[in-house]
Amino acid sequence: MTPSLGGQPSFFVVAQLFLLRDGRRGKSPTPMDAYAKGLTDADLQSLAAVFEKQKPPAPPAQAPERARFERGRRLAEGRNCRNCHNPDYSGRNQMPRLANQREDYLLKALRDYRSGRRIGYGSASMPEEVAGLGDNDLADLAHYLSHYRKEK
Predict the structure, then answer these.
(1) What pLDDT score was predicted for residue 125?
(2) In 24-101, which ranges are continuous DSSP H helix?
């Protein structure tokens, strides 16, 4: 249930650490809350720079479940996930990299957005994007994104 931070956009990491530090990331406490409390603005920027330069994770070694992968792909396309998270789901600015993120973490984050336990900053687009999706939909979307391979 922990995210992979390698290759995450610096702006995204700074924003998330800031929200954690200030207790504004969501309604459910996380283990990171206590750690982030003592971070300075310079610490946030330094940590973000380190994570952004790390290599993003590769897709899982095991092949995806084809039917779930395809359902997740259709959901991602129908919800226009590529508009904000880039066509290859690499993330940009305040939008995280989704490609090859841990499936369990993606599912938890999607559920938290849907339930309102996790809030965004700026616009409330994520809660709106996942509204109306059932648990199987969220699981298929997480499966697709975690197994995503850049198209050639």
Answers:
(1) 84
(2) 31-37, 41-53, 66-78, 81-85
Lowest mean pLDDT among 100-109, 119-128, 143-152: 119-128
CA distance 85 to 87: 7
Closest CA to 12 of 102, 86, 111: 86
pLDDT at residue 104 greater than cutoff 80? yes
Higher pLDDT, 24 or 148: 148
Contact, 90 vs 56, CB < 8 A?
yes
Go through the domains of the chain in sequence order and give each one's CATH number: 1-152 (1.10.760.10)
The owner of tokens 């336990």 is: 117
Cα–Cα distance measured from residue 102 to residue 4, given in angstroms and rounded to the nearest whole number: 7
Please state, as a whole number, how many other Cβ atoms lie within 10 Å of the Cβ of residue 102: 17
